[in-house]
Design a protein that fits this description.
Layout: E1 2-6, H1 10-27, E2 32-37, H2 40-44, H3 51-55, E3 57-61, H4 66-70, H5 76-79, E4 84-87, H6 94-103, E5 107-110, H7 118-123, H8 132-137, E6 141-143, H9 152-164, E7 170-186, H10 195-203, E8 207-210, E9 213-216, E10 224-227, E11 234-239, H11 243-251, E12 257-263, H12 265-275, H13 294-301, H14 308-316, E13 320-337, E14 342-354, H15 372-388, H16 390-393, E15 397-399, H17 404-408, H18 410-422, E16 426-431
Parallel strand pairs: 1-2, 1-4, 2-3, 4-5, 5-6, 6-15, 7-12
Antiparallel strand pairs: 7-13, 8-9, 10-11, 11-12, 13-14, 14-16
Helix pairs in contact: 1-15, 10-12, 15-18
């Protein structure tokens, strides 16, 4: 199996390690990696605890990814006979890498979509889905929006609805609410994700579905108090717009209400910046360059993500004391019993929690953030088992994660959940 990554970062290094470990455990086939990067030295820093990965890897350094997209034949010796291309860079490159995958008859995966534009909002379609027919015609698989959320959250929701479809009574899902927790206790300001990406997501007016209509809110204008399993405190959550909302509405159109919330330390910081008008896109008139906005200044001066080595040192020196990521979907349903026409309302909570972050220092994953670790674990597991079961499950075309349970079947679904727990990710399943 040959895996090609476009871009290397904290999530990419985790995915590569997971694929390496699952390959040894499950199939023990030959596995090699190719990393297409802008700076080889900086990229190798992400594998400072993974010599085995570097021994099975090649690196291709390019100043500009555009050249490989425009002149694919020039890179045939690197890309031929690949199993999958993974975009672990930015969503801007999704379509270009997908077209490259079609050129070389290769499967594809990515971690996120560009959804903050009018075209996606009006169509409620991801840009990658425009190439669905081409991937289907070539019997190729394209997994989009992988990770922990979106990704595993969608998979677990899909798996639960798949199970409900096999029950002897009728179950109608009325509402899905996804709740995210991003909590870190640290003496230093440490971002788990790119601050620029976080600012863009938080600044965008939250969208949600109510009675099948798309609604909009002002950022941080509403909130709710929520109690996450495994987390000791109640958390204030705020509506947010992410890929899950579009994806779930596509897959389960009969669900009338779909909403998403997020909370935790990082979100509280973003809320404070927003309410102080420091995320404004208005120009700062009177400065030498009047085209500079407050938002651009904040993005420029806010601390960037730390290197894996720095993260490891922060944990060793107890600068980072605790961190937790949780994603819980509350599924409100109505159960109908045909024998007596009785209807019962019920709410089930499913999801994940990762709260063993500081223990990563003892593993090959040391240096990951508390978000990049579960994101990479989730993406790696879904990619590996989708490829492993591609032939018998007839996986092809552009697929979102909640569709996988129907295609993979109960046995593989159970294996995927067991793999998550083997990586210290707690599964949540309860009835409220």
């Amino acid at each position: 199996m040959k895996v090609v990554f476009f871009g290397v970062g904290a999530v990419c290094s985790v995915i590569a390690r997971v694929l390496y470990e699952l390959n040894i455990k499950t199939s023990n086939n030959n596995l090699e990696f190719l990393f297409i990067v802008r700076d080889i030295k900086k990229s190798k820093d992400f594998f400072f605890k993974n010599k085995e990965i570097l021994e099975n890897s090649n690196f291709l350094e390019l100043n500009n990814f555009e050249d490989i997209f425009k002149n694919p034949k020039d890179y045939e010796k690197y890309l031929k006979k690949s199993t999958i291309f993974i975009n672990s860079s930015i969503p801007l490159y999704n379509i270009d890498i997908m077209k490259l995958a079609l050129e070389f008859k290769t499967n594809y995966a990515d971690l996120a979509s560009d959804i903050y534009n009018d075209k996606v909002i009006s169509s409620l379609q991801f840009e990658q889905q425009t190439l669905n027919k081409e991937f289907e015609d070539n019997n190729l698989l394209a997994l989009i929006n992988l990770g922990i959320s979106p990704g595993i959250t969608n998979f677990l929701i899909g798996e639960r609805l798949y199970s409900l479809s096999n029950l002897p009574y009728k179950t109608k899902v009325k509402k899905i609410e996804i709740n995210l927790l991003e909590e870190i206790q640290s003496k230093q300001l440490v971002f788990s994700w790119s601050p620029n990406v976080a600012i863009e997501e938080i600044s965008y007016p939250p969208l949600y579905f109510k009675k099948n209509s798309l609604k909009k809110l002002e950022p941080f204008s509403k909130s709710k108090t929520y109690k996450f399993p495994y987390f000791k405190n109640f958390v204030e959550l705020y509506p947010v717009f992410q890929e899950e909302l579009i994806s779930l509405k596509q897959s389960f159109d009969d669900v009338a209400d779909i909403k998403m919330f997020v909370g935790g330390n990082e979100i509280e910081l973003m809320k404070n910046l927003y309410q102080l008008n420091l995320l404004s896109n208005k120009y700062c008139y009177g400065y030498k360059d009047s085209q500079i906005s407050i938002n651009s200044i904040i993005k420029d001066v806010i601390p960037k993500m730390k290197s894996p080595q720095t993260i490891e040192e922060y944990i060793k020196n107890k600068i980072i004391k605790y961190a937790e990521f949780s994603a819980v979907a509350d599924i409100e349903m109505e159960i109908s019993y045909p024998q007596n026409s009785k209807k019962i309302k019920s709410t089930e909570s499913i999801g994940i929690s990762f709260n063993k972050y500081t223990n990563l220092i003892k593993t090959h994953y040391s240096g990951s953030t508390y978000v990049s670790y579960p994101t990479g674990i989730g993406a790696g597991i879904l990619i590996f088992y989708s490829l492993l079961n591609k032939k018998q499950s007839k996986l092809k075309g552009v697929l979102v994660s909640e569709k996988l349970p129907w295609l993979l079947g109960a046995v593989t679904n159970d294996i995927i959940k067991r793999e998550l727990t083997s990586y210290k990710i707690n599964l949540i399943n309860s009835i409220k």
